[in-house]
Amino acid sequence: MTSTINSAHLKQDIPLITFQDILDAQHIRTNIMCANFETIPAGAHAAYPHRHDFYEMLYITGGEGTHFIDFNAYPIKTGTVYFISPGQVHYWNTSVPLEGEFIGFTKDFLLLAPSDYMVLHEFSFFHSIENTPALGLSAKERELVEPLIQSIAAERQENKFRSDSVLRAYLHIFLVEMQRIYAAPEGTHYVAGTDGAIPTLVRHFKQLMAQQFITERSVQAYADQLGVTIGHLNNTVKAVTGQTPGQLIRQEVVLESKRLFTHTDLTSAEVGYRLSFDDPSYFSRFFKRETAMSTMQFRKSVAKNYRSI
Predict the structure, then answer these.
(1) Residue 292 lies in a domain
(2) CA distance 145 to 78
(3) Nearest CA among 108, 107, 97, 104 for reference residue 82
(4) Which of 32, 102, 207, 268 could form a disulfide with 295 if both were Cys (CB 3.0 to 4.6 A apart)?
C-alpha cells in the first residue's frame, strides 16, 4: 500500500507533538489522558509523520486504513492495541474514521521516584526494536481490557479525591495485564521467560541505550556503567533478545538515521552529525554496511513508497 506524506512537513527535524500540546488543545492540566477518538485533538492521531514526547496506547474498535510505525505498516483491525513510545515516528492513513480509546501519559505520571523509571522497560511493547508495537486481542481478552479502560476514563473525568493515585494504580494494572497477554506462551509475541519478565540487566541496558545510543556506541562503556563484564552483558542480552548489545545499538542508530532520511530534508552529512558521526564518509560506510544500501539508495527506495501530495 502506498502512503502519502505532506511535503509541508518535511523540515530540518521530525515534527514533535508534546503532551503539553495535547493539554493546551483540551484546556486541561494533567499528566494522563483518556479519551475516545471523537474527542481527542487531531495531534494525538495525526496523519503526517510525527513523534511524541509521551507514551501512547490506542485501543481500536473501528475504522479502516493503515497505521505506520517506524517503517512498518499495520492494517487497522478492530481489537488491536497500539503502543507508541516517546521518540517513535508514526502516523495514520485512514479510509474509514478511527473509533476507539486513547490513553496518553508522561513517564513522570507513572513513576513516583527516579528509580521507578525501570518499570517502563519491563514492558516488551515499549522501547523495543525487536518486538511489535501492535497487540491483537481475542474476544476474551477484550472483555478483560475494556472495563479497565472504562475505569481509567471514568476516574479521569470525575477527578475525585486522590484521583491521581487511583489513576496511577489503574494504569499499572492495565500495563501489567497487557504484558501478561503480550507474553503469553500461546501467543505469537515476544516471551522473555515464563512470566514475561525481562531480566534486570537487560532492562537496565536497554534503558541506558535508549538514553545514550546517539553519543555512546561502545558496549564496553555500557558494561562499565552496569558494573558487569562485557562478556556477561553480551551473553545475557543475546539470550533474551537473540541479538548482541552491539547489534541492538547499531539498530537504534540505523533506525534513527532512517527516520531522519525519510521525514526531513537533511543531507547525509547532517544526519551523520545529528548521530554524532564527525566523519561523513565513515557514517556513509556505516549506513551501507548495516543496510546493504547507500544513503542515496535508501532515500530513492523510500521515495517509491512515500509520495508527496
Answers:
(1) yes
(2) 13
(3) 104
(4) 268
Shared-domain flag, residues 172 and 209: no
pLDDT beyond 80 at 245 = yes
**Is 260 inside any structural domain?**
yes
DSSP of 81-143, one letter per residue?
EEEE-TT--EEEEEEEEEEEEEEEE-HHHH-SSGGGGGGGGGSTTSS-SSS-SEEEPPHHHHH
Expressed as residue numbers, the domain containing 141 is 18-182
Please tell me whether residues 34 and 64 are part of one structural domain. yes
13 belongs to a structural domain = no
Domain boundary among 150, 182, 214: 182
Grid cell, residue 100, equals 476507539
Annotate 297-309 with b (16+ C-beta within 10 A) or e (fewer): ebeeeeeeebeee
Instruction: Using the Cα atoms of residue 146, residue 85, residue 170 and residue 165 in order, give the sign of their dihedral.
Output: negative
Q: What is the pLDDT of residue 309?
A: 32
Beta-sheet pairing, 51-52 with 16-17: parallel
User: What are the pLDDT digits (tens) for 141-182?
Assistant: 999 999 999 999 999 888 788 888 899 999 999 999 999 998
**Higher model confidence: residue 294 or residue 188?**
294
Query: What's 8's DSSP letter?
Result: G
Q: Could you write out the DSSP letters of every residue in 12-60?
A: SS--EE-HHHHHHHHT---SEEEEETTTS-GGGG-SS-BEESSEEEEEE
Q: In this structure, is residue 301 part of a structural domain?
A: yes
Give the bridge partners for 264, in sequence order.
Answer: 11
Last residue of a domain, one of 182, 213, 239: 182
- Residues 72, 211, single domain; the answer is no
pTM, whole model, 2 decimals? Answer: 0.78
- CA 172 to CA 259: how far, in whole Å? 31
Give the model confidence (pLDDT) of 179-220 as tens digits: 999 887 554 444 344 344 567 888 889 888 988 999 999 999
Residues 93, 239 within the same domain:
no
Whether 159 and 300 share a structural domain: no
